[in-house]
Write the structure tokens for this entry.
Amino acid sequence: MESGSGLDPSKSKGSGSGEGKFGAFLKRVEPFLPRKELNPVELRSWAKKTGFVSDYSGETSTKLGETESSAFDLPKGRDHQTDRASSRQTDLDPILGRSRRSDIGSDPESKPGSIEEERGSNRNEAAETPLENEGGKISRDLENGCYYPGGGEGEGGGWPKPIVMKYGLRDNPPSYGPLIYYGLQHYLSLAGSLVFIPLVIVPAMDGSDKDTAAVISTMLLLTGITTILQCYFGTRLPLVQGSSFVYLAPALVVINSEEFRNLTEHKFREIMRELQGAIIVGSLFQCILGSTGLMSLILRFINPVVVAPTVAAVGLAFFSYGFPQAGTCVEISVPYLRGVSIFGHRIFRIYAVPLSALIVWTYAFFLTVGGAYDYKGCNADIPSSNILINECKKHAYTMKHCRTDASNAWTTSPWLRIPYPFQWGFPYFHMRTCIVMIFVSLVASVDSVGTYHATSMLVNAKRPTRGVVSRGVALEGFCSLLAGIWGSGTGSTTLTENIHTINITKVANRRALAIGALFLIFLSFVGKLGAILASIPQALAASVLCFIWALTVALGLSNLRYTQTASFRNITIVGVSLFLGLSIPAYFQQYQPLSTLILPSYYLSFGAASSGPFQTGIIQLDFAMNAVMSLNMVVTFLLAFVLDNTVPGSKEERGVYVWSRAEDMEMDPAMQADYSLPRRVSQFFGCRCCY
């Protein structure tokens, strides 16, 4: 290697163990070998290809001839660096809040000699700094595929390098085999979010096992259709659309209201039609929010300090439901496998939810067959209200939630069933539930904004424009409209768990997701598949949901990495928003003396809509306001939104989202390929649809 390259790892091996580790990393970087006639274009292309970015930028007045002889002279590089240290200005990265030099990339005519000179001095400083701790971090980052050379920044010092993907957005595998495999892999890793919501809401509506199977099939169909729509006509990011936990809490609020809790006939259909009407109205509001450009204005006020506690509150809303249900059968609720390695392959890292559920489900089957849940003189098929023997009454709940043969979905469900619009009847439209869903659709939009931003960082070096985000929100509203028409019980939105799945699988290919979505559509017609999933014991489903809700909380709080996390301002806003987001709903939930005698304990937090403290005499308004203020995520969002936009703080401190401009997209062919609509569609709607 020529001495001018300055990237020879052998130079740093003799300096210390930490330097040796850093040298081992540099071995993986393809060296750039300068010639006598150094071409700046080649230098930039090498830096872009290898991801190498210097934290320092030198003076542009250095002559090229001087640089060739001294740029990588380590003793001199240190001296040059010291002489110029006082002439630099330090500012904060607008995205990550990390310190960087203000002159990085600011002068497009900077001579390559200064760049080479600074690169040599930068490496010399790294060689003189103890790297024992840094070496371990590099090893961990390399293992996770997220090491950012140059201090964690990409081109221009303000954008982190994406993780290495097996298949990117526009990659074309040589055959359909990898596409099918990775497409199904993506949906299997999201299985818990896709199919477990009906296991919560349908029993709460007194629906039969056959109804549960039908709702699961409907959700599979809608997930396939809406994912294809989002991949090609929304943001075009590789994001799975599905029934969201954002809509689960308000659905439980409606289900446990006084009007429906006392119904005895057709309770499932009546509640489902009420939910359908509310979801349709909320989805229309979301469509208007995105298609009119109003979302582009709201984006100026939505930042990580708002998104983080809001998404975290979505998962925390179910803390009173999770383990009280799962604890019924602790023996089939505790086991959860993730770090298990089989023949060197950590399949449980990708398929943690489906494989863990399958293994524990099999274990529960053997417990059932072995008589672990058999009680003398008790029959699991008899409703607890008709049981006359006191000994059997206390075991009825355990038998219902733990036995694998408690469901009759397999015998009652048909082999072929095609979900169709308004299959439960024509929706009801009432102001009280429609107002609730309008607030919820706004929270769902905020959730999606954070997911769009995080996903673009994982798979693409360019952020979407505000117009692309608005287009995605508008399409999510249309997807929720389809969910309301078909009757899935919840709205459809971008699943937050997508971020975790893409990071684990390293696959971000639109075609793979589309092919997997076609398989979901086909499987939704197999009624027996929905019956099998409906037979999962409720305690097992609750235990899996505990993990998914905890993951949602963690993914929400991870948005704070774009801010200055040590800022007292940010810590205070997030802490106050989360605490009051849990405490204020608890205040509204205590005004229900009769509910404690009727509802199970895990539903009490969702029963405040009919008897909350907000009483004006207008029944519809009272219901809506009590319901809204009893939802943790809505209260948390409103508090975080107000505090983040009123408490003073710099953009760097707040980690303000910086979206791409439409002008940048017009001049960037790669960005157009990533985010622009298909040509025929953009011609049909007009050029502004391309943003």
User: Anything to note?
Assistant: The longest strand covers residues 90-92. DSSP finds 36 helices and four strands in the chain.
